[in-house]
Specification:
Blueprint (H helix, E strand, L loop, with lengths): L5 E9 L6 H4 L39 E4 L11 H9 L3 E4 L4 H8 L4 E4 L2 H13 L4 E5 L4 E3 L5 E3 L4 H9 L3 H6 L2 H10 L14
Length: 201
């Protein structure tokens, strides 16, 4: 997956709490077997709602989503973060996340950041007032730099930080131990009858 180090982008504001995975990607779009192509269906049921702005010209190309409490609640489907990533989001800033959703994000390279509610409120208001302004997320320093020069520190699990900085997904981490896995396969005791005679034919 693509490493995440320092990233600057406009902000897309989603001023809602308790956004569940079925609202992020409705169930009728889960038939696809590939991990790509879900972005076009993101927040499908909300696009005509008053106050929904994410697909407007102003915010369409933003790569940082800012939203409220308990983002990603509901089912554990991986398709929701896939859709967010496929749409173009590299990071999500929220007051809080559902645990499984947060973990699913980090496994594909999306950085979830929890900030106090007043900081999230300020970012959402600034996005509406200054739609072209950008913020910068510095993962090595664990700081969000706002468009008006403020620094907001955030916490991140050290193991997650290392994975994101290096672009390591689960397969990468497994392959990093390939020599140990090979040695285990060679040396482990095998129960049952010996079949080594098959190799002599």
């Amino acid at each position: 997956m693509e490493p995440f180090t320092v990233h600057s982008s406009r902000v897309a504001p989603l001023d809602r709490h308790d956004v569940d995975t079925d609202q992020i990607l409705p169930k009728q779009f889960l038939k696809r077997i590939e991990r790509s192509g879900f972005g076009e269906f993101l927040f499908w049921d909300w696009r005509e709602d008053e106050g929904y702005h994410l697909h407007s010209e102003r915010f369409r190309d933003a790569e940082i989503l800012v939203t409220g409490r308990n983002f990603g609640c509901g089912s554990s489907r991986e398709h929701a973060p896939w859709a967010l990533q496929d749409h173009g989001y590299r990071a999500i800033i929220a007051v809080s996340f559902a645990d499984i959703f947060r973990n699913n994000c980090t496994k594909i390279g999306i950085l979830p950041i929890e900030l106090p509610e007043h900081e999230v409120r300020a970012l959402i208001d600034a996005a509406h007032a200054h739609g072209e302004a950008t913020i910068t997320i510095d993962l090595p320093e664990q700081v969000v730099h706002t468009h008006d020069g403020r620094r907001i520190e955030f916490l991140v699990d050290e193991a997650v930080k290392l994975r994101l900085l290096n672009g390591w997904d689960d397969i990468s981490l497994t392959l990093d131990d390939e020599a140990l896995i090979d040695r285990f396969e060679r040396e482990r005791e095998r129960e049952g009858p010996s079949t080594s005679w098959l190799l002599n034919d």
